[in-house]
Design goal:
104 residues; mainly beta; 9 strands; globular
Length: 104
């Protein structure tokens, strides 16, 4: 399940492959013992269980993202400033089946 909080930030460069503009994103998958948190994106950081993948200072205003229909696909995002400008490069997080994590 993917849940996100929509952002008011408007990207200055539209990208149809990244249709969602979100302030925060959470991905949860069903595991053997119940729901398992797989990914959290906040303005300050992108986190997977046990790891901080990216930190943002100052915090990102939003993320322009593309999310797969299942966890075998890649999650692609660009962090944006409050003004809608990219503050980093396009990032692809792929599902790593061996580690059961989304990783760059």
């Amino acid at each position: 399940m993917v849940a996100y909080k929509r952002s008011q930030v408007v990207p200055r460069a539209a990208d149809i492959t990244l249709p969602i503009v979100a302030a925060e994103v959470v991905i949860v998958q069903q595991g053997v013992a119940g729901p398992e948190l797989q990914l959290v994106m906040t303005p300050a950081q992108v986190v997977v269980p046990g790891r901080v993948l990216f930190s943002y200072a100052p915090p990102a205003g939003a993320f322009q993202i593309g999310v797969p229909a299942d966890r075998t696909g890649a999650i692609v995002f660009i962090p944006l400033s409050d003004a809608g400008d990219p503050i980093g490069q396009r990032v692809t997080l792929a599902w790593n089946a061996a580690q059961l994590l989304y990783l760059p």
